[in-house]
């Protein structure tokens, strides 16, 4: 059973010894002899209306099985004064197999919105918004109305088990236009400020919960070991020690004390992606045109425990995280010879033996988007394999009815034990009780007025300033003096979509004026009344004291951003031309890199007087100007190693022959001006 008799409802476990070691992993584990699936057809997260319609048409009839025991008003599970474990036990005993399987199923809102009665007929446990899956009225009220309408359908079921609504709040409540959008995690790692990360995620939790969702698919506690990975910016850094330091974000999401999770200031968190997603081998991915994302982590158990598993030990033992999302990636142990990778979603060794039994995780596992479809075999084999491996809830966005039907058949045929179903459902129900959903199923909108508030944006602005890493500062070029005549060039100087990056309003993010906030150019103009902006540096430069060239990337997410999949670490030709033009014409030249990962600037560096890594700052670009003009000092340190060439990847602190352009932890400091 997932629920322990001694469990204190709503309590977060206290810190215990969290030092991960290789002994967490057994020497000779049992392992299903699974191979990579080469049938994977890469799917997008949105725009599948035809599939959704087909799904609706294929719905099974409403659940007809009769319960063994009806739920009266005196049912123990409805008594909020009873311990969570007792409530779970009571409710589980009243549920039919169909109702249990429904709790294990999560559908995408786009698949059920046209026929919301599916929530009732399938007894769905959860609904999610994928990236860009938003209500027609993308406002706090529009979100809350939508989530509450779905919740009403869940409460129309026989046992009135409330719905858990999940959303990717990975750098703020980023699907909502108007939310506070924070820098991505790679920048937060550069702050070296765990308290600021905690504060960021508390704000994210408040803004998310005020619009309905009670569950965030965040934070990513991956350890990025190769900058060619399109998700590198979702990681706090390449050193597991730094990632562990920043796991204070889990407290920001879930709270520190008993009962915090049930308040309007906290949401259920998700540590992801368990485990090794940032440590996959380049070229190993078989997902569409991806090169490294969703690939294979080829490693021995000692390295895996030290680097990839370490953050999850802390997430469970110190922070008591409520849910964990297994990775799309595979593991291929070198101890038994390379060439037999196992998908994480199929690994009983890692999901059950290691995570649940040895580490002691008592929350629930949620699969990633259609992740089980990458397991070899037909759909029934995929479902059976993953459930038996230890997966508890299944993100089956457009195939929820098929999943329910398939799992029911597997249980009835004896291929999945009822005890495994009961364990999964107990874990899910535990989270719902701890969230207080049975007492308060509908959205508490009382904090909606704080969404995007000046107070919240001030924290984001502080995060931007503290994340800026000064990598070069010749002749004390920085900080700048107020009202110097400034010439600004580069597309990323005045594009809030570019500076927010992926996972902003839509899955991939997009260029342009997509969210409210301040661009870097806006921030510069707040400090000088003599600013000339020329995107392509075609305007005359004469009379300028300082040139600022803002280079970098345009938005991407996941494997779409993998190097080799239409992306490179090199600067664009336009960026190089802007550096050449401005730095040769103006006496003092500052270059800012707005990107989700270090770019190759080896040949450009000598042309600059100052070079700053600005990362993906989010909605508060004025925070960049705060350090440029000395309102705050530069204190950021690199959270990843900066390569001198793309061919150097992967390069990480501790490697032999470690000769990067800038080492991990590098960052110059400045003294602030006194205005």
CATH architecture of the largest domain: Alpha-Beta Barrel
Question: CATH top level of the largest domain?
Answer: Alpha Beta
Shape descriptor: globular
Number of helices: 20
What number is the mean pLDDT? 91
What is the chains' assembly state? single chain
CATH topology of the largest domain: TIM Barrel
The largest β sheet comes out as: 6 strands, mixed
Q: Which strand-content bin applies to the residues?
A: 5-15%
The tally of strands reads: 17
Structural class: alpha/beta
The CATH homologous superfamily of the largest domain: Glycoside hydrolase, family 3, N-terminal domain
- Helix content, binned percent: 25-40%
The tally of structural domains comes to 2
Radius of gyration, in Å, reads 25 Å
N- to C-terminal distance: 62 Å
Strand order in the sheet with the most strands? 12-17-16-15-13-14
Uncertain segments: 1-23, 27-68
Describe this structure in words.
The chain has 675 residues and is of the alpha/beta class. The protein folds into 2 domains: 87-441, TIM Barrel (Alpha-Beta Barrel); 454-648, 3-Layer(aba) Sandwich (Rossmann fold), CATH 3.40.50. It has helices spanning 49-57, 84-94, 97-103, 109-112, 117-121, 140-154, 185-191, 194-209, 240-245, 249-254, 301-317, 348-358, 379-389, 400-412, 418-434, 454-467, 496-500, 520-525, 573-585, 622-628, and strands spanning 105-108, 126-129, 164-167, 215-216, 270-274, 296-299, 323-326, 330-333, 342-343, 364-365, 394-395, 469-473, 486-489, 531-534, 546-552, 588-594, 610-613. It has a 6-stranded mixed beta sheet. The radius of gyration is 25 Å and the shape is globular. The N and C termini lie far apart (62 Å). GO terms for molecular function: beta-glucosidase activity.
